[in-house]
Amino acid sequence: MNSFEKIYEVVKTIPKGKVATYGDIAFLAGNSRWSRVVGYALHSNPDPESIPCHRVVNREGKVAQSFVFGGARVQRQKLEAEGIVFEEDGRIDLSKYRI
Predict the structure, then answer these.
(1) What is the dihedral of CA 32, 11, 44, 1, to 10 degrees?
(2) Which residues have a Cβ under 8 Å from the Cβ of 73 and sit 6 or more positions away?
(3) Which residues contact 52 (CB under 8 A, 6 or more apart)?
(4) What is the CATH number of the domain that holds 67?
(5) Catalytic residue (one of 53, 57, 63, 79)
(6) Is residue 89 a contact partner of residue 63, using CB atoms and an 8 Å limit?
(7) 53 counts as catalytic
(8) pLDDT, tens digit, for every residue of 17-76?
(9) How many structural domains compose the chain?
(10) How far apart are CA 65 and CA 83, in angstroms?
């Protein structure tokens, strides 16, 4: 299994209403230095219906400004539709929603 495939398998395990950071995904995929690789993999997501890349946020709990499937607004809408509440500053409370 290559690095992207490992990343996709981890992302598939994030349940609705929860998020993970790029660093979380990198660690769980087997290499804590892969945070950027996680970003590259998500931008190449071959199956957004089964690989919920919208559930991956940065270490501050913010959505990606360049979310490949419609931008930050779309990513936020998808997360809100799953019950995730954003703080006034646009962050997600990772202590509450992180896997």
Answers:
(1) 70
(2) none
(3) 11, 12, 14, 16
(4) 1.10.10.10
(5) 53
(6) no
(7) yes
(8) 999 999 999 999 999 999 999 999 999 999 999 999 999 999 999 998 876 777 888 999
(9) 1
(10) 20
Q: What pTM value is reported for the model?
A: 0.93
* Residue-level pLDDT at 58: 95
Cα–Cα distances (Å) from 87 to 7, 60, 83, 91, in that order, read 28, 12, 13, 5
Tokens of 86: 């954003």
CA distance 99 to 88: 22
- DSSP element (H, E) containing 56: strand 56-57
Structural domain harbouring 13: 3-97
> Distance (Å, rounded) from C-alpha 99 to C-alpha 93?
12
Please answer whether residues 62 and 87 qualify as being in contact, where contact means their C-beta atoms are separated by less than 8 angstroms: no
What is residue 98's predicted lDDT score, i.e. its pLDDT?
98
In 3-state terms, what secondary structure has residue 63?
coil
